[in-house]
Amino acid sequence: MTTSVKRSLTVATAAVAALVLAACGAGESNNNSSSSPTGSASATSPSAAAAAIIDPLKAEITWPDPTKLSKAVDVKGKTIWWVPIGDAVPVIHGFYEGFNQAVTAAGGTVKLCDGKFNPADIGNCLKQAADQSADAVVTAFVDYAMLPAAYDALTAKGIPVLIAGEAPSGGKTASKDLAFFDPSAHVKKMYETTSAAGIVAVGDKAPNGLWLKLMDSSLTTSASEAGVAAWKALCPTCALATVEYTTPNADKLPSAVSAALVQNPDVNVIMVPVDSFVPPVLQAVKTAGKTDIKVVSTGGDLPNMQNVKAGTQAGDLGTPVIYTGWQYANALFQLLVGDEVVADPNLTNRFFDSSNISGLTLTPEAYLSNQWYGSDSYQAAFKTAWGIS
Length: 389
Hints:
Helices cover 40% and strands 14% of the residues. By secondary structure, the protein is α/β, with parallel strands linked by helices. Strand 3 (136-140), helix 5 and strand 4 form a beta-alpha-beta unit.
């Protein structure tokens, strides 16, 4: 796997965690959202300020109403290609399942062409879509700059393309046939919220943190900096150490975290921006002989949810993957009817810890549903907004 593909994959898992990236809806606000931890906590205690952010996120999500399209979308009998950077990642496959549900509900058909984390395979998928005159193409976490010629070949044929989970790159901007579903603001807010979760996790103890800064891209770097800034805003006098790492050197994460714990022996909470990096962190904590360090992360992946239920992880900011897939379909339909595609920065996430996870069924089937997050009521709201109900 090339470094560029690894970086794109990391952005994918971070946005969806997210982000989720990217778990963002165009023009919506989250009824389950809380204030962003960017202001001073001087008027109240750090734990109280952090709890004011986290506690509302523990409830089931009240889905926001999507913005009505300017006209009804018509995808009946049309084939939409879904080209993810790699379908083997559970969160990305979950997005596909939601997207497929939504397009099918609107009368269309989805064709999955797996990029398999290989630029050649991704490029071949895009070429096939062009050669077969796809009615539209949605890529998931495939940066425009990775395959500009393949993208341009699609739009040159008048095929609408939505680049989901990526910001504009390579000097390319949106046009009538090309749109970006950019999760940047959402990922930033998720990382900020992770700092609040870390402060809540230590309870009555004075927070002493270790933030793992993911430096794979400008997105993850700036979001990590936002997470660090949020910690300092919430608890200006609390100690905070950092470890910088990238996906290609993730195998060195256990030793890096172990070294940080030696240098900062009073650390009692570690903030991990992406669920998939929790196992090496837990390994480092165990190697250091620490039994009182809390770990919080983002994503809501099944193994991490099981960790939270077992008590080996303090908390997780989960992303509803099926709902996010419907959001991607909504963004595509906005493009198809000529509306502006804008990703919402608000959190449509749920925070899980020991207070709300005990009654959940933690299975692969439940992961690919809305069981952990709320009802399926948003589906009717989307269909109404699309003019197909």
